Amino acid sequence: MTCREFAEFILDYVEGRLRPEVKAAFDEHLARCPQCVAYLDTYLATMELEKVAFANPEGEVAPHVPADLLQAILSSISRS
Fold first, then answer.
1. Integer Cα distance of 10 and 37 in angstroms
2. Where are the domains of the chain?
3. Please, what sign has the CA dihedral across residues 10, 7, 42, 79?
């Protein structure tokens, strides 16, 4: 298992959708790769922040969010 392979399948890993032998390879890689451990920790933290941020989709936008960032997000959503 390489770091690139780990990154490509991290969502399947987190959601428990990997075959047992592939999960074992992920776990083995994590045991010897501190960079991927840090990446996984950051990925999990981001998922938690996303849950909080989108808990109330009709809520107000925080006042410290730059207007150009808000506009870019809204533009990307409308193109989807």
1. 11
2. 3-79
3. negative
- Taking the model in full, what pTM does it have? 0.67
Q: Please provide the DSSP assignment of 26-52 as one string.
A: HHHHHHH-HHHHHHHHHHHHHHHHHHH
- Residue 36 exposure: Cα atoms within 13 Å on the Cβ side: 20
Q: Is 33 left (phi over 0), alpha (psi -120 to 50) or beta?
A: beta
- Residues 28-76: pLDDT tens digits? 999 999 999 999 999 999 988 888 777 776 777 778 888 888 888 778 7
Cα(62)–Cα(26) distance, integer angstroms: 38
Residue 55 tokens, joined: 């808990």
